[in-house]
Amino acid sequence: MRTYVAGIFLFLTSLVVAQSQPQLNLMPMPASVQSGAGQLPINQAFSVAVTGFHDASLDGEVQRFQTQLSRQTGIPFRPKSGAAPSLQIHADHGRQAVQRLGEDESYELTVTDSGAKLTAPTTLGVLRGLQTFLQLVQITPTGFAAPAVTIKDQPRFPWRGTLIDVSRHFIPIDALKRNLDGMAAVKLNVLHWHLSDDQGFRAESKVFPKLTGMGSDGMFYTQGEIRDLIAYAHDRGIRVIPEFDIPGHSRSWFLGYPALSSGAGPYTLEGGGIDPIMDPTREETYKFLEKFIAEMAKLFPDAYFHIGGDEVDGKQWDANAKIQAFIHAHGMKNNQDLQAYFNQRLQKILAKNHKTMVGWDEILHPDLPKTIVVQSWRGQQSLAAAAKQGYSGLLSFGYYIDLMWPAARHYAVDPMADAAASLTPEQQKLILGGESCQWAEWVTPENIDSHIWPRNAVIAERLWSPQDVKDVASMYTRLNAVSLDLEFLGLTHRSARMHMLHRMAGTSDITALRVLADVVEPVKDYNRWSDAKGPIDFHAPLTRMIDAVYPESDVARHFSDLVQTFVQSGYKDQAAEAQIRNWLTIWRDNDVKLQPLLGQTFLLQEDVPLSQSLAALGAAGLQALDYLDKGQPAPDAWKTQQLSLADQAKKPMADVLLMVAAPVQQLVEASAASGHN
Amino acid sequence: MRTYVAGIFLFLTSLVVAQSQPQLNLMPMPASVQSGAGQLPINQAFSVAVTGFHDASLDGEVQRFQTQLSRQTGIPFRPKSGAAPSLQIHADHGRQAVQRLGEDESYELTVTDSGAKLTAPTTLGVLRGLQTFLQLVQITPTGFAAPAVTIKDQPRFPWRGTLIDVSRHFIPIDALKRNLDGMAAVKLNVLHWHLSDDQGFRAESKVFPKLTGMGSDGMFYTQGEIRDLIAYAHDRGIRVIPEFDIPGHSRSWFLGYPALSSGAGPYTLEGGGIDPIMDPTREETYKFLEKFIAEMAKLFPDAYFHIGGDEVDGKQWDANAKIQAFIHAHGMKNNQDLQAYFNQRLQKILAKNHKTMVGWDEILHPDLPKTIVVQSWRGQQSLAAAAKQGYSGLLSFGYYIDLMWPAARHYAVDPMADAAASLTPEQQKLILGGESCQWAEWVTPENIDSHIWPRNAVIAERLWSPQDVKDVASMYTRLNAVSLDLEFLGLTHRSARMHMLHRMAGTSDITALRVLADVVEPVKDYNRWSDAKGPIDFHAPLTRMIDAVYPESDVARHFSDLVQTFVQSGYKDQAAEAQIRNWLTIWRDNDVKLQPLLGQTFLLQEDVPLSQSLAALGAAGLQALDYLDKGQPAPDAWKTQQLSLADQAKKPMADVLLMVAAPVQQLVEASAASGHN
To answer: Mean pLDDT across the stretch B8-28?
Structure first.
């Protein structure tokens, strides 16, 4: 039986290998790629020429492209005047002054050994093609070069976004800008700016200054900064859609304007829970929103405007006799009807300001016009139901990057899968795309990049590339390459971890600490919330191991792959075994080196049992390999003891998970099975 | 004999250990430090209050101090209103609008377990004291804290500078700013801005726009940027002194204004050599300089103005009949007299603009007034000679950080040593301090930080701290701590190496490449120049191993120390031997892992023999240890072979040095000596 199973696995493995042959490190993978012969050298003579349409925005992009290529390669370009351009760019037309949903992003890129040509109907397509060119450039034995290739590319979905919550933790403009650079690099085209929530109101209103004056901790964006960020995003082909979350998630509004709320107050930003809700029964509420939305509609030029609408728990409505009376007087059945009434009023205000309403699942109601867009945190079923009623939708279910899932899990989520797969072609067109969501309960400007990147790139690929681009091994290979490119772009998703580990250690030699950090991941889903016990203190330092480590451990994934390879070889793959032994030895011996440091600093004391567990896993794995090598089953007592140890190691410690516990457990179990030699 | 020698070494070692007991990680070490009991916790409640004099500049500094403390600790401060301040700051007076040489920088800082107090005669002293406080803060088992201490501090020398050459490679404003931050952190107070040289003129002149228009590659600072940088430096207590190097090193002037030159031209920026010189015999030259200096004197507010004056090779003067006739007509003996004449004219122009002249050794001439300052690249003897004639001086000999010396070598150079030691107290006062020099033949904005830092901090200590602060082990311990702090300040001296190694490798896993990079250093002194064969191409990429690695290898120094410890123990220190074995094993086994990568990228191909040599050294060292363990002398033939291998490994390969070759050679030699057990 074992041989047979191993045979199947081997077959699968070789399939994966075949698909992940040396390839172009492109992410998102273009719609069509045809490899050619030879390569275009990238050296000091590299030059760019623009023909056809161009404007200041395109010129700026070409300048940034050259700067970035220079950073990646370290080459200061000195093109010779008069020489034929290395890269010829041609756009037929310019872009819309305000980028539109569905604006043409297509391009064609041809690279030969003598030159490259990038053509696009609009300069927006040129932006996308330049990012592809940057990803093509690789170091080779003879120099930097772009391989000969013909690419025809356009996105699968027109709406490919990332939500960044700046309410729970304020994220300064410079951090947002570098994340916009990252988004542009992987062809995302919407920044969904979650500007208000219970914990803070972050956009300056000149009409209602107390929104930020009392509804924030003093950290907010001025209108000048907002305009600047929108221009920065536009230059990179990214729309900016503001979200002001109402009628729930709106406690921060009520500090300055308590009359808007359905409860008595007083309110503070620090409290937990999501009970405070706007009062949709008072005309004054709509007068306020009329003025506020008129102001914001001018500030944010995009045609879409997000009003949140999620998680209205209704407790304040239930407890307010006047509101309950209003519900009965208007023949409404429940709080949902009241929210629908609120949304209809809101929709009319937005329409007057030439904005299309976007909101979360909960806003879906037959009384709202079909023009609205529903963003689903609930799943494809919710999207499909909306589409069947004629509503457009966006998928965010499965794309919550704050939940610390591995890239592969996000990658597997497709907007057209499950319930959406059975929609008619017309209905499918209503699914506009999706958005990853970076909720900010547990991030600071220091570590936000590593929470978003590189994993965000695989969601970008899901939304841009053809549906059948889904090979996981290829994805991880390309993700690694993208991750490096992003650091050259100025993102800090890798370097910040080093800073944070140094801070925790208080010393420059963090070799042993890195060994530990390399194999742990933060707890998943909302488990950190559960462990927090009570309301989260959004001003507490985020400087623990869980805050420093990557959401996904490359080392653990690699180790797990090695163990699978070894098991599938019937324990005969000596190269894999040697590598496994090497890792296990490092882990077994690491605790002795690390313990003196762990005791010295308060930020590492909670990691003492973690380090001990890793050492124990190393020892257990090595013993298991010894049993396997001898071909004799390990004794039951030993097995029981080691499995219990591994079970223990799989539980969260200090809110992180030892990701190598499971594969070590697998080795222990294998060693205790009957002899196989 | 051996036993006796080992005994002495052991004695010395324990002395060093005694001096380097756990200590405050301060650099530069203050003039007086008295440790107290307990520590001041640094937590979210940390607050600062300013009494006495304050102005916008001090307020800004206090703000930056809090931001930096927050970055170091990861704590977002939320002081409670009404609570006693954690740190009380009091300055009696403000600072000069234009910082003066010798302005009071003294301060006193007292930390107890209940609070800290920083007092200073002027706000300039507060700046210095705040940097000391930042360095005091460390992570402890109970939290971040500043240990109780009483510090009374003032600088040994009033002029403590760093020269940054921006002519050979342009260094953008943002890179200069982060280096100013670094300078302020170690209490340096002069940025000597080397703004023109043969290869580029970098400061905008509105009167003579062709200076940058034709005399640069388009990269220069506008006057607005210059004013901005000066203000930035002033806020940090740093004077900015411009250098326009004349009459030599001035080729870049002649592209736009060829009539200034003593030769026929035409000139290009690319040529090698230092022959082109200004013509000091034409009155038009002085008319030009009158206008130019008047413009620059307004732009640069400091009282001092650097006119270079070095390395006037005189060939163009010799070859110009008119100039030779002028020399004879004015009764001059030689070119030196002509340069002195030029400098006298220049000095008068400077005096009219209320500037004091600074220049290199060569300007020293009895016809110049005693007010001028001589900066010596030649040594203390030159300084002493000047002082005996009544001239002020600055030492830069021994502080050329572009020469890639280890920190300890710079640290050992004292302005008052050698010839200067025998000066009278009055003459010694004329020695104002010194400047490190970052000449820019081989740096880019990407790697300049690692060329300057952290080594620059030890020169800062030499110029600030009492002369008897010179323990090398203590210096290296504290340097490590400062180096980490500097990364939190935004300097890239550590992170840039990672970027550059990633670029060279073209892949994310650079473990084996780092093992190699960790033990090599760039060739020293001017050896890279000699190897360059012909004029340097200042626009060539600087992306090789030599460009990426640190000027000084911590690993190699640590390994060498281990070998000394082991040898001095009579080969009995088993802990040291185990560590030595560990390193040797890593190196022996590294080449197998690294070779596949080295072949894949053109930037690593030159490192193939380097990696092979390291492996051979690892193997040789391990064999030597085996012989030593057995207590039998290694065979002569083996010894000869290994010593020849080590000799080979000590020679530069790819312009870098394998710094572990010498200690391995020592092991080989020891193993071949007679048995010792």
So the answer is: 53
Nearest to B483 by CA among B414, B552, B434, B545: B552
Contact B50, B58 (CB under 8 A): yes
Could you identify the residue written with the tokens 């030689």?
B334
Task: Report pLDDT digits (tens) over A600-651.
Answer: 999 999 999 999 999 999 999 999 999 999 998 999 999 999 999 999 999 9
Written as six digits, the tokens of B308 are 């270079």
Query: Which pair of tokens denotes residue A336?
Result: 């949902």
What is the rounded distance in angstroms from the CA atom of residue B664 to the CA atom of residue B521? 16
- DSSP secondary structure code for residue B634 in this structure: P
Q: What is the pTM of this model?
A: 0.94
Residue whose pair of structure tokens reads 């890179």 in the numeric block: B175
Question: What is the SS3 assignment for B357?
Answer: strand
The reply to whether A140 touches chain B by the CB within 8 Å rule is yes
Helix axes A456-464, A472-488, angle to 10 degrees: 120
> Does the CB of B498 have a partner CB in chain A at under 8 Å?
yes
Dihedral angle sign, alpha carbons of residues A40, A43, A45, A48: positive
Distance CA B601, CA B506 (A): 8
Torsion angle (degrees, nearest 10) of CA B169, B175, B178, B184: 30
Give the residue from A600, A507, A604, A504 showing the smallest Cα distance to B478.
A507
Nearest Cα residue to B260 out of B226, B299, B290, B237: B290
Please say whether the beta carbons of B656 and B649 come within 8 A. Answer: no
Q: How many CA atoms lie within 13 A of A462 on its CB side?
A: 28
Residue B446 distance to chain A (closest CA, Å): 9
Say whether residue A67 is in contact with chain B using an 8 A CB cutoff: no
pLDDT tens track for A203-221: 999 999 999 999 999 999 9
Q: Which amino acid is at B5?
A: V
Which of B311, B441, B487, B669 is an active site residue?
B311
Tokens, residue B313:
């090779």
For residue range B224-250, list pLDDT tens digits in order.
Answer: 999 999 999 999 999 999 999 999 999
B132-189 per-position pLDDT tens digit: 999 999 999 999 999 999 999 999 999 999 999 999 999 999 999 999 999 999 999 9
pLDDT tier at A674, thresholds 50, 70, 90: low
Instruction: State which residue of chain B sits closest to A499, comparing Cα positions.
Output: B488
Using the beta-carbon criterion (under 8 Å), do B76 and A541 form an inter-chain contact?
Answer: yes
> Cβ of B541 and A599 within 8 Å?
no
